[in-house]
Design a protein that fits this description.
Elements lengths: L1 E8 L1 E3 L2 E3 L6 E5 L6 E6 L3 H18 L4 H17 L1 H12 L3 H18 L2 H4 L3 E7 L2 E9 L2 E5 L7 H12 L3 E5 L6 H12 L7 E3 L4 H9 L3 E7 L2 H13 L3 E5 L4 E5 L5 H13 L9 E7 H16 L19 H16 L3 E4 L17 E4 L6 H4 L6 E7 L2 H8 L4 E2 L1 E5 L3 H10 L4 E4 L15 E2 L2 E2 L6 H7 L1 E9 L2
Parallel strand pairs: 1-5, 8-9, 8-11, 9-10, 11-12, 13-14, 13-19, 14-17, 16-17, 19-20
Antiparallel strand pairs: 2-3, 4-5, 6-7, 7-23, 12-22, 15-16, 18-21
Helix pairs in contact: 1-8, 2-4, 2-7, 3-4, 4-6, 10-11
This protein binds nicotinamide-adenine-dinucleotide.
């Protein structure tokens, strides 16, 4: 069904909203209702060329604006984003489906990156060491790169773009953003508010589209660096093609995050933590908890409480305040998730909570309820693959070492968490677990913006993560100066 006022999303290039030259049009449904709420044209190479040209033109001026002045524009942007928090969260829920509470959390996490970017005058500072030899001084200076592109996924329409352009722009770069063609709506408000903050034209450009836009950016000679966040195969492609074309690339990829539950944990808090991490945002988080390795001694108690609490969670429209599990992003994704749940049953796992059959209450949305499997083993697809849905696999292990060894078999290594009251267990976990982001009794160990964000193994292609000092290093190049004056 198409509502009477379907908006066609536009690109923002230079100083105005422009129609895409793409002929292929994609419907954007509200995942909660299936109703088409917007359409987006898949842009083509000429749109990319125009956006890059506008960013390149703007770079000449923007890179010479003093760093504190660049930061002042961001203070203004920060203010506007804060004033529009509620509106931004509603747009996220409308186009992505996650509950309003999760959307509000996302808005806040995005704003925190803009806060970080306002401190660029500190973060971008170089180093100096006078008198490195008689009459000679040494120093390191940091400079922007030029035009930078950002390619983002559907699951965080606000936070992930904000991981990229505020810091890149604060460092003196200009930017071309390509958000997910499945969630293109919020970007319009982000760009509007950006220019309301007074930024000069061309500093941030937006091109809607899909893989042709990505490949156009990867091949474009005037793009110096690419920030990518999305699924593993695409991250690998972006990293390999971008670096082969001489670009700097950071490509944050897919995940399968594990928690290890020890017998000495606080059972109630652990269950609440696992529920939030596994089923919040309908499991469509790169930091979602997808596997729990629970030590035998506490496994039955843990599963009894986890199952009974999970059965209380309401699946429904994210706009409804009582909803915990919103819809997944598309009907096709729902079908894929259901086929994963079917495969878990066929491969012999015990299905304790079944989220497949909740259609009757919500006929046109893309709903999958919270789902829990027990007695999962690492040879099963539900253990191995990123399902990206509210589907949790529980594996019983004999002790901490077994839990760590099992977790480290995953091809992904984004986040991992231990629930325990033992400092010793936590220390062993921290040392032996292979994950880029580690938590102790925290549900989702997503770092705050002033730390770097990135995984290991197949969860990340690149060297420098997003945010924190890594982000500043990624968006700048160095000159080391050795000088002597006669
Ligand atoms: P996706 O890979 O389908 O899309 C990401 C971006 O790549 C989009 O802008 C899309 O248009 C583009 N794209 C898709 N297919 C392409 C192709 N064949 N060639 C070139 N470009 C292509 O990812 P998604 O489904 O939108 O997002 C979910 C994924 O993102 C999950 O795997 C999740 O774990 C991952 N993710 C990772 C992190 C992290 O920090 N590691 C954060 C958020 C999401």
């Amino acid at each position: 069904m198409i509502s009477s006022e379907v908006k066609v999303m536009k690109n923002y290039i230079g100083n105005k909203w422009v129609e895409s030259s793409g002929r292929e049009m994609v419907d954007i449904p509200n995942p909660a209702t299936g109703e088409t709420i917007a359409q987006v044209a898949l842009s083509e190479k000429e749109d990319v060329d125009r956006a890059v040209a506008a960013a390149k033109e703007a770079y000449g001026h923007w890179s010479t604006v003093p760093v504190p002045n660049r930061a002042r524009y961001l203070f203004q942007y920060l203010q506007l984003l804060k004033e529009h928090k509620a509106e931004l969260a509603k747009i996220i829920t409308l186009e992505n489906g996650k509950s309003l509470r999760d959307a509000e959390g996302e808005v806040q996490r995005g704003i925190e990156v803009v806060e970080l970017a306002t401190s660029t005058p500190n973060l971008m500072m170089g180093d100096a060491l006078p008198s490195i030899a008689k009459g000679i001084d040494g120093s390191i200076w940091r400079y922007p790169l030029g035009v930078v592109a950002g390619i983002t996924p559907f699951n965080f329409p606000m936070m992930v773009p904000l991981w990229m352009y505020p810091l890149a722009i604060a460092c003196g770069n200009t930017f071309v953003l390509k958000t997910s063609e499945r969630t293109p709506i919020l970007a319009e408000r982000l760009v509007d508010l950006f220019y309301q903050s007074g930024f000069p034209e061309g500093v941030l450009n937006l091109v809607h589209g899909a893989k042709d836009v990505v490949n156009g950016l990867l091949d474009h000679p005037d793009i110096e660096a690419i920030s990518f966040v999305g699924s593993e195969p695409v991250a690998k492609h972006v990293y390999q093609t971008g670096t082969a074309n001489g670009k700097r690339v950071q490509a944050l990829a897919g995940a399968k995050n594990h928690a290890v539950v020890m017998p000495d944990c606080d059972l109630e808090k652990t269950v609440q933590g696992v529920i939030g991490a596994a089923f919040g945002s309908s499991g469509e988080r790169c930091m979602a908890c997808s596997v729990v390795a629970v030590v035998d001694d506490i496994a039955d108690d843990f599963l009894d409480l986890l199952t009974s609490e999970t059965k209380k969670l309401k699946a429904g429209d994210g706009m409804d305040e009582s909803t915990f599990v919103g819809p997944v992003i598309r009907e096709s994704h729902k079908e894929k998730v259901i086929s994963y749940i079917d495969s878990g049953v066929e491969e012999g796992a015990d299905l304790l909570v079944d989220g497949r059959y909740i259609e009757e209450e919500t006929p046109d949305g893309y709903y999958v309820g919270a789902t829990i499997f027990d007695h999962v083993t690492p040879n099963m697809k539900i253990w191995q693959d990123e399902i990206f849905a509210p589907v949790l696999s529980v594996v019983r292990v004999k002790d901490l070492e077994a839990g760590i060894a099992l977790t480290n078999q995953s091809k992904f290594a984004n986040g991992a968490v231990i629930y325990t009251s033992s400092g010793k267990y936590a220390q062993i976990f921290r040392e032996k677990i292979d994950a880029g982001m580690v938590g102790v009794n925290v549900n989702v160990p997503a770092p705050m913006a002033f730390f770097a964000f990135a995984g290991n193994k197949a969860s990340f292609y690149g060297d420098l993560g997003t945010n924190g000092k890594d982000g500043v290093q990624f968006y700048t190049r160095k000159k080391v100066v050795t000088e002597r004056w006669f």
